[in-house]
Amino acid sequence: MSVTTKATIASFGGKLLKLSHAATSTKCEMSFNLYLPPQAFQNPSQKIPVLLYLSGLTCTADNCSEKGFFQHGASKKGIAVLYPDTSPRGLNIPGEDEAWDFGTGAGFYIDATKAPYNNGYNMYTYITEELPKTVFQAFPQLDSSRVSITGHSMGGHGALTLFLRNPGKYKSVSAFAPISNPVNCAWGQKAFGGYFGEEQVEKWKEHDATELVRKWKGPLDVLIDVGTGDNFYKQGQLLPENFEKAAKEAGVEGVRVRYQPDYDHSYYTMATFSDDHVEHAAKYLFA
Amino acid sequence: MSVTTKATIASFGGKLLKLSHAATSTKCEMSFNLYLPPQAFQNPSQKIPVLLYLSGLTCTADNCSEKGFFQHGASKKGIAVLYPDTSPRGLNIPGEDEAWDFGTGAGFYIDATKAPYNNGYNMYTYITEELPKTVFQAFPQLDSSRVSITGHSMGGHGALTLFLRNPGKYKSVSAFAPISNPVNCAWGQKAFGGYFGEEQVEKWKEHDATELVRKWKGPLDVLIDVGTGDNFYKQGQLLPENFEKAAKEAGVEGVRVRYQPDYDHSYYTMATFSDDHVEHAAKYLFA
């Protein structure tokens, strides 16, 4: 459970910590970043809520820390930002490094059930259980009862599915360009086929936001930004319209998908709108 | 003089353009980025002022475009940001790719006089003459009479020296962690020795901000941010204290060096304070 500090970087009045720990669920040393806002250093008795940001395919904890500018909004609101990695690293599973959209950097926030990936590709358990347990033990100034979740692309899929599968666990959810209906897109089919097996259709649906929202009870205040210039959106990898439609059919109110004119799939889009997503989380974290 | 558009990226309500052109002064195709704020697309009769940002060693136009967060402030103020490259590329001068602090990526914003670098390493002429001429011809909505300058590290040296050598050319100047006294630091001595020759002491001084500020007439409202956790500052590569001392001795008022506690030499520092530097430029661009 011990955490190694690899770097401490001043950022927007707070500190960005580059950390790692030996993870049991993923059977390897996992790197992650944690942004502590200035408020975390001001009043020791004030507990700091956490925004969990899940990254997309190929990313590490560093990409969004450098380019997403969540620290800008989080520093003003007094929110810590937790940036995990996107998969186990270095498990030496044959083939895990062959594709950019499967294996290393592409854990898809599920627990794999198919060999050989069932031996360590457990990002669902890692993100929902082991990482928070580790972080809240190492940083007692953080408030484990106030956590919101967001993410980009594969991480948007992660944010939506982790939220929908665990009612009450997260105070709020938002997403950038989420893979919203993985069972119906090439990325999701490749990932779920490889991690669960081709025939495990019910298992696939358990990790599909569009399937999960059909069963949601009550309102769902989710903020989603998708750029109309996003090539992956145009290629049908994201399918936010399926998510919207499913929510509507199920009578779930509060799904706000903003189609941002010309914006693409890059961090330039996230940088532009991250303040809005921090604001969305803050509404619930400080409710 | 024609400009090639390689990409158009939506960012903070405006557009970041990735561009290139065949440059005469540097004898090669030069890439640069230009951020057009939302105001550039709103009122065709409204001329947009420009903030010229000069990058540091090893960087291209992309680093600060992605990580510096200048678009955040510039989009609010209605300022275009011009991000040039840091040297000629691909001239095939023997040795130009051997070091990260000399040759490619390290043009130092001077015109080299020593062979073989005098054949193309003319970043001073490129930045002060050819690039603006090209940009203002290609983008008539930009206001060539309102340009401010800033930069980081080697680019901070560029910003200070270009401003001090050309009174009236730029409306304002600021810098992050500038190489403030290159004749007295290892980076500067290597660069000036290689580009001008070891014996050309007077030439060296013509491109040294600390030497130039001694001759400045009148006030000088310059904003400089240096992190106290900056390893290059601690190693004596930046020497902002020499610049401050020289200005004081010469009776030049208005030099504001902010020593930012714990901040390092990275883009995390720039992202934190870029809004302040945009604000500083805006005060003069909209005076």
Automatic annotation (TrEMBL), chains A, B:
Catalytic activity annotation: S-formylglutathione + H2O = formate + glutathione + H(+)
Claim: RNA-binding is one of the keywords in the record: no
Catalytic residues as annotated in Swiss-Prot or TrEMBL: 153 (charge relay system), 230 (charge relay system), 265 (charge relay system)
SUPFAM superfamilies in UniProt: alpha/beta-Hydrolases
Coarse class of the protein's main subcellular location: cytoplasm
Gene Ontology MF: a single term: carboxylic ester hydrolase activity
The keyword Hydrolase belongs to this UniProt entry's keyword annotation: yes
Enzyme Commission number(s) from the entry: 3.1.2.12
Alphabetized Gene3D superfamilies for the sequence: alpha/beta hydrolase
Keywords attached to this entry: Cytoplasm, Hydrolase, Serine esterase
A GO CC term assigned to this protein in UniProt: cytosol
Record InterPro entries: AB_hydrolase_fold, Esterase-like, S-formylglutathione_hydrol
Location(s), subcellular: Cytoplasm
Superkingdom field: Eukaryota
Gene Ontology biological process: formaldehyde catabolic process
Alphabetical list of Pfam families matching this protein: Esterase
Family membership: Belongs to the esterase D family.
Function noted in UniProt: Serine hydrolase involved in the detoxification of formaldehyde.
Name of the protein in question: S-formylglutathione hydrolase
Species whose genome carries this gene: Aspergillus homomorphus (strain CBS 101889)
